[in-house]
Amino acid sequence: MRRLAIVLLSIAAARAGDKNKVPFTSRPAASYPGHQTLDKITIAAVPFVTEEQAASAFGKANPYKYGILPVLVILQNDTGKALRLDLKAEFVDAANRHVDAMAPADVTLWDGSRNASWKTGSSPLPPLPLPRKPKKGPLHVPEIEGLAFSARLVPAGDSVRGFFYFEAQKLPASKIYLTGIKDAATGKDYFYFEVPFE
Questions:
Q1: Cβ-defined contacts of 103-109 (< 8 Å, 24+)
Q2: In this predicted model, what pLDDT tens digit does every residue of 61-77 receive, in sequence order?
Q3: 85 Cβ partners below 8 Å, 6+ apart?
Q4: Is 38 within the bounds of a domain?
Q5: Domain limits at 69?
Q6: Which residue of 38, 116, 124, 195 lies most exposed, with the fewest beta carbons within 10 A?
Q7: Is position 1 within any domain?
């Protein structure tokens, strides 16, 4: 009975902590230094690299500390038409190397050392994965998946936002390359966006 009381008190304390948490917010896309406007669509790309930025979105977890660069993407639709999104994101460094975005579920399992052992080993092939229960890493927080970019439709005059995650470092002249924006009524593709971080 005592154990049940302790469990119930722990749940109540966790819920009280959640009520005090300030929800994540962002500014309009055009207010960030790293933004681009084409065809009345404005997209901002904001890398989250500081402890303060990470705390505002992910609480105690800081993906950048573990080699994952979270990039907040805000898309403002001023076209006067609804947009359909199948947004694909790539990180592009100054040498024009492209890195695909990671699945948010993979980020929650990331521990910063995965795949490191076979990269430096003598075998040119990675070891075969063994079936095992995935460990909960330091990035196993609900905000990683909850704040990931998932919008599929943007009504006229509205905006959407979310994070893309990359195994990359923010370096000068880095940018994000985005494709997959279409006119919802006609299916016409909009031009790609290359949004600098600054």
A1: 104/144, 104/145, 104/148, 104/163, 104/165, 105/145, 107/63, 107/68, 107/139, 107/144, 107/165, 108/137, 108/139, 108/140, 108/141, 108/144, 108/145, 109/134, 109/135, 109/136, 109/137, 109/139, 109/140
A2: 999 999 999 999 999 99
A3: 75, 151, 152, 153, 154, 160, 180, 181, 182
A4: no
A5: 43-196
A6: 124
A7: no
DSSP summary character for residue 189: B
Number of domains in the chain: 1
**What is the pTM (predicted TM-score) of this model?**
0.79
Q: Identify whether the C-beta of residue 15 lies closer than 8 Å to the C-beta of residue 5.
A: no
Q: Once rounded to an integer, what is the mean pLDDT over residues 49-71? A: 94
Smallest CA-to-CA distance from 196 within 46, 39, 95 is with 46
